[in-house]
């Protein structure tokens, strides 16, 4: 039985109209909400294949794959079952879902049966015989959310192969892959309901995902998944389902797919605070820090303070815990830092508390720790968890080289280095420039 709840949502709310102006509404619990217009032109954070595989392999070591990944994913995201078989009592007019493994005799259509056979043949061809994606654990045929999971697997085949490569040293790489796939798909199902609303872990996931892919790509992912759902429900053949998946794969793209898979792996079996603690150490976190501020008006260190996220036509509303630090609507100053980040009186104290930046990474001060800045702003304004972020060593070296160079086109000065020119400006001006420097140097705009 295909889930009827999805039919109305295909006609409402989040459309792909290019002329829509996106906005973010930050509710801080203090005074009026802050309305942010995201900076245009954001692109998904690029996560290199090697960094992606290394990171998901490390995250997977702490995960115990479930034998019932769909059920585990529903519990993780607090999503109710949306498909299956039901008994209807005409006298009481009550609908009762059948339990796991219980099915109605003769309920499967011939199209569902043939699609299921084609799915099993596909598993065989890919070297993973049997129910390789665990789509038949809750029913005898591929229906409901199983269709969406299969379409996602067909859409992101290359990224799934990278995941399998990363999980090759685990006892059951395929079980880990299906756990990630169902986690990923079920989160998208949560986003696809009318007036999407997420809290706790799902809220942190949503804000982090926007930081990685940008607000416009995030909207495209939701709209594209709604279209995939409609196409998957209509599909009567494996080929039609593959076509729907491949269309969505083009919408998502490789970089967004890697970011999505990375965050889904990090979220498995965890909580909102735990996911927020993992994020700064993930590949691409430095650029995600930049996009959190330009796309959400939110400092990345405050991701763990997000309580709920609601998505409606043109607006993402983010409710923060009392005391969380948000940027001002114009990208300038911040709200009073009642929930200030952890800070230290010296960089050595910071490193002693937090340890190394991570494999192949170095700690980087967004607002530099120059003697002048220490004197003007104080050491704790510099050596804290909002200002110091991990950067790849090569990128860190390029940013440092950029600061030491004379760039008339950037600063307007033919005699001052970027560092000298920047040193007289306010803390917020230096921070905004420092974030743009990371982004532009990474993209090659400021070589």
Protein model, in words:
- By secondary structure, this protein is of the alpha+beta class.
- It folds into two domains: 22-80 and 116-320, no CATH class; 347-443, no CATH class.
- The protein has helices at 6-9, 49-60, 69-77, 110-125, 145-155, 157-166, 173-192, 201-213, 215-234, 238-267, 272-278, 285-296, 347-354, 371-377, 393-403, 408-411, 418-422, 427-443, and strands at 23-27, 34-36, 86-89, 94-97, 197-199, 306-312, 315-320, 361-365, 388-392.
- Helix 2 crosses helix 6 (157-166).
- The termini are far apart.
- This is Lipoprotein.
Mean pLDDT figure:
83
**Count of individual helical segments:** 18
Cα distance spanning the termini: 56 Å
Number of domains: 2
- Largest sheet: number of strands, sense, barrel closure: 5 strands, mixed
Helix content: 40-55%
Order of helices and strands: HEEHHEEHHHHEHHHHHEEHEHEHHHH
User: Got a strand count?
Assistant: 9
The secondary-structure class comes to: alpha+beta
* Basic shape: elongated
Sheet with the most strands: spatial strand order: 2-1-7-6-5
Pick out the low-confidence regions: 1-19, 84-90, 326-340
Radius of gyration: 24 Å
> Beta-sheet strand percentage?
5-15%
For this entry, give a set of tags.
elongated, alpha+beta, Lipoprotein, 2 domains, 48% helix, single chain, 5-stranded mixed beta sheet, 447 residues
Q: How do you describe this structure in short?
A:
The chain is of the alpha+beta class and 447 residues long.
Which SSEs are present, and which pair or pack?
Blueprint: H1 6-9, E1 23-27, E2 34-36, H2 49-60, H3 69-77, E3 86-89, E4 94-97, H4 110-125, H5 145-155, H6 157-166, H7 173-192, E5 197-199, H8 201-213, H9 215-234, H10 238-267, H11 272-278, H12 285-296, E6 306-312, E7 315-320, H13 347-354, E8 361-365, H14 371-377, E9 388-392, H15 393-403, H16 408-411, H17 418-422, H18 427-443
Parallel strand pairs: 1-7
Antiparallel strand pairs: 1-2, 3-4, 5-6, 6-7, 8-9
Helix pairs in contact: 2-6, 2-10, 3-7, 5-7, 5-10, 6-7, 7-9, 7-10, 8-9, 8-10, 8-11, 8-12, 9-10, 12-18, 15-18
């Amino acid at each position: 039985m295909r889930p009827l709840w999805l039919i109305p949502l295909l006609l409402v709310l989040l459309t792909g109209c290019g002329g829509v102006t996106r906005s973010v509404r930050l509710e801080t619990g203090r005074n009026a909400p802050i309305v942010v217009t995201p900076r245009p032109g954001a692109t998904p954070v690029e996560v290199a294949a090697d960094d992606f595989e290394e990171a998901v392999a490390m995250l997977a070591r702490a995960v115990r794959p479930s034998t019932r990944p769909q059920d585990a994913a529903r519990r993780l995201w607090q999503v109710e079952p949306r498909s299956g078989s039901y008994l209807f009592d005409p006298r009481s007019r009550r609908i009762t879902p059948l339990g796991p493994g219980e099915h109605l005799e003769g309920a499967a259509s011939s199209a569902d049966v043939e699609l299921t056979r084609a799915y099993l043949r596909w598993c065989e061809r890919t070297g993973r015989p049997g129910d390789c994606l665990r789509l038949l654990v809750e029913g005898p045929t591929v229906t409901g959310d199983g269709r969406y999971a299969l379409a996602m697997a067909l859409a992101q085949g290359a990224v799934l192969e990278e995941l399998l490569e990363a999980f090759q040293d685990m006892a059951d790489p395929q079980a880990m892959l299906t756990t990630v796939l169902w986690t990923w798909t079920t989160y998208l199902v949560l986003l696809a309901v009318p007036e999407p609303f997420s809290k706790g872990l799902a809220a942190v996931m949503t804000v982090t995902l926007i930081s990685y892919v940008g607000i416009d790509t995030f909207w495209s992912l939701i709209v594209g998944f709604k279209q995939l759902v409609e196409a998957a429900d209509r599909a009567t053949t494996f080929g039609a389902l593959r076509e729907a998946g491949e269309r969505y794969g083009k919408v998502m793209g490789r970089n967004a797919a890697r970011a999505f898979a990375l965050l889904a792996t990090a979220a498995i079996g965890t909580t909102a605070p735990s996911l927020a603690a993992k994020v700064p150490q993930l590949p691409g976190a430095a650029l995600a820090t930049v996009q959190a501020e330009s796309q959400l008006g939110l400092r990345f260190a405050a991701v763990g303070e997000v309580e709920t996220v609601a998505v409606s036509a043109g607006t993402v509303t983010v409710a923060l815990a009392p005391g969380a630090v948000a940027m001002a609507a114009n990208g300038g100053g911040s709200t009073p830092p009642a929930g200030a980040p952890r800070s230290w009186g010296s960089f050595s104290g910071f490193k002693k508390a937090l340890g190394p930046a991570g494999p192949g990474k170095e700690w980087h001060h967004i607002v530099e720790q120059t003697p002048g800045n220490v004197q003007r702003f104080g050491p704790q304004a510099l050596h804290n968890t909002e200002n110091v972020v991990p950067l790849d060593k090569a990128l860190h070296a390029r940013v440092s080289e950029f600061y030491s160079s004379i760039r008339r086109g950037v600063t307007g000065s033919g005699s001052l280095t970027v560092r000298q020119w920047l040193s007289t400006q306010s803390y917020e001006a230096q921070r905004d420039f420092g974030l743009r420097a990371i982004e532009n140097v990474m993209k090659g705009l400021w070589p």
